[in-house]
Specification:
Length: 291
């Protein structure tokens, strides 16, 4: 029969083991729990993930700069395709980053991210980003990766952010610690103009051609051209007044959703797949201006 002293000792040891087990579990999951806390609250400049931009566009503007780095142990080159953009709060914005694997073998990387100042984190909303998943990049491959985001208009009413006019979005790529099940960055390898020509033939040629206007305007020399720039074509007032220039980024946004980019635009079709959009744009780059 257990004496009272032994019973107290057993209870004390059981309590200690419970505390140690709890501390072990908490320690094991502390990084994950902290990451989930940051993602939920925006703490530490952690940006938010959303399915779509459902915010009203504000007249208030903010500048967003981009900063990239690579861990010394990862033989990649990684850079933003644009150093800065200026946008309205609530405006869906698409930017691109280029990654290149300098090694002779495939590598899986993982991108960490944050924005500064930290208090901007809860209002910086990403719709699409390579940072959501582990990413495989083939040996010597180079891709341009899109990031689709907006800054919540409530940014202008929070007393901690209402006077902020500059945000910096930073990424650092590291070798992945969980390479199993990684997605392949080849899905963004839309630099294949031949594949783009085939996609154009099946998805776009019913309305567009390179040598003449059809239902839509001629696309000869469209990359770098001002929107509504084909003489004599009856463009919508919305597109005519947009002031857009057809850069790669603007073409990508346009193909993703013309009406969302330019409300009142007449083009009814879109290309939902990112890789297909990039391939079509690669083909459009090959179309020289008429004459």
């Amino acid at each position: 029969m257990m004496t009272p002293a032994r019973r107290r000792l057993a209870l004390t040891l059981a309590g200690l083991f419970t505390v140690l087990a709890t501390m072990t579990v908490v320690t094991s999951y502390s990084v994950t729990l902290y990451r989930l806390f940051c993602e939920a609250t925006g703490a530490g400049g952690t940006t938010q993930r959303v399915a779509a931009d459902d915010a009203a566009v504000s007249s208030r503007t903010v500048s967003v700069s981009f900063d990239t780095s690579v861990a010394p142990s990862l033989p990649w080159r990684f850079r933003p395709m644009q150093r800065r953009v200026r946008l309205h709060l609530g405006e869906d914005t698409l930017v691109f980053f280029e990654a290149e694997n300098l090694s002779d073998h495939d590598i899986v990387g993982h991108a960490t991210f944050n924005v500064t100042p930290d208090q901007a984190g809860p209002y910086f909303k990403k719709i699409q980003c390579f940072c959501f998943t582990e990413e495989r990049l083939a040996a010597h491959a180079r891709v341009q990766m899109p990031v689709d985001f907006f800054v919540d208009p409530r940014f202008a009413t929070d007393r901690e952010t209402k006077d902020v006019s500059e945000i910096t979005l930073s990424y650092t790529f590291f070798p992945s610690l969980r390479p199993q099940g990684a997605t392949d960055l080849a899905r963004f390898g839309g630099e294949d103009a031949a594949a783009g020509a085939q996609l154009f033939a099946t998805q776009c040629s019913g309305c567009h051609a390179a040598d003449r206007s059809k239902v839509g305007p001629s696309l000869a020399g469209v990359v770098g051209r001002t929107a509504a720039g084909v003489p004599g074509y009856p463009y919508s007032a919305a597109l005519t007044q947009s002031g857009l220039v057809w850069s790669d980024a603007n073409l990508a946004r346009w193909l993703a959703g013309p009406a969302a980019m330019v409300p009142g635009a007449a083009m009814p079709m879109s290309v939902p797949d990112v890789g297909q959009r990039q391939a079509i744009i690669a083909y459009l780059r090959t179309l020289q201006p008429a004459g």
